[in-house]
Amino acid sequence: MPHTHWLLLLLAGLLVLSPSQPAQEPDNPSNGTSRELSQWNISGYEIAPSNADFAFRLYHLIASPNSGQNVFFSPLSISTALAMLSMGAGGDTQTQILEGLCFNLTTLSLPQIHEGFRFVQHMIGRPATDLRVHVGNALILSQDLQLLPEFVNATEASYNSKVLRTNFGDTEATIQLINNYVKEKTHGKIRDLVRALSPDIRMVLVNYIFFQGLWKKPFPSAATFDQDFYVDDSTVVKLPMMLQTQQEHWFLEDKHVPCVVLRMDYKSNDAVAFFILPHRGKMQEVEQVLSPDMLIRWNRLLQNRYFYRKVKLQFPKFSISNSYALDEILPDLGFQDLFTPRADFSHINKEEKLQLSKVFHKATLDVNEVGMEAAASTVVLTTFFSAQRKTPVLTFNRPFLVVIYSSNTQSILFMGKVVNPKA
User: Fold this and answer.
1) Domain extents for the chain?
2) Interval 84-138: pLDDT, tens
3) pTM for the full model?
4) How far is it, in rounded angstroms, from Cα 176 to Cα 155?
5) Are 259 and 238 a contacting pair, CB within 8 Å?
6) CATH dotted code for 4-418
7) Mind giving me the DSSP string for 362-402?
């Protein structure tokens, strides 16, 4: 019986709002014919509902036992890496991965799924002025591990994966190789993704996503001031609060859900940020109804000119980082066999019995006056809408939710909950 060797899946997400260098104008999004591009578009939008379902299911699973902690992750990074891994899986393992990602395999074919991910990665990675998004995948292989050509070709074609060779027996050198690679691809924002490795690991799959955007309406740095942020009934922290007094923004007070929703636009129209501020003590109530349909509803409402109004906006300047061992979470989403000897990765290599050991994900979120970067209470009454003739005030000085949304692919890049910006 072949000896079991291990696979490792690493995912890094980074969201940053800060100054960036001007980029070149986007190239033609397709190197093929218009017919091929049309098919690409269809596949790309067809996977969007499944990706959204997976994102919210994962959010609820992560947030439920961590109600008092920050939550931030990139669902697109995780689903992309798992979809790429499915190309090396066979039989029930492949089905389990794709169904765990919320795909209905009776209505969406395997080629459509992988073409959809290829479209999404290509579209969000196109050069654009004032917006930088880098997404990619890498296979770190043992020096003597031979992959099936079909797997290498398929992952390269659909996921633009890169292949790096290493000696896993030298764990220190391998850890440095992986961490340096991810650090470089996320512009230094994701560091020390891996701290320890088992020498019997044979292959590591890495996915990274880096996002850097500039606010369409930046905050004046001179107006930033220190203010209290009410984490919970007994915890108050002091942090820089950014201020805008005369700008117009898209925002609404939901009549059916106890929250205010603010849409912040980037200079590039390819992405937007939604910030959901629950009323005092209503975070759990808002989280209970948080879903793809609710996001679609808010997005639709915030395209109505009625909700584009002048507001006095106070928003925290902060940075948070979260790490997750997804191998402890994914089985509850239907990936029951993925980390057991029953897993079938025979489409990667037929000579060795490969088994998935760990899935690491790390994401960071930086928000400042000019924009956002990611690689993702006892309160006085601070959100209120006074008489119509007065400028409404919106102050984010208690826990809130965040969703970073790619408009041109209808994909959720990052999502999370900011409970304590200083944690």
Assistant:
1) 4-418
2) 889 989 999 999 999 999 999 999 999 999 999 998 888 887 766 567 777 777 8
3) 0.85
4) 24
5) no
6) 3.30.497.10
7) EEEEEE-SSEEEE--------EE---TTSPPEEE--S-EEE
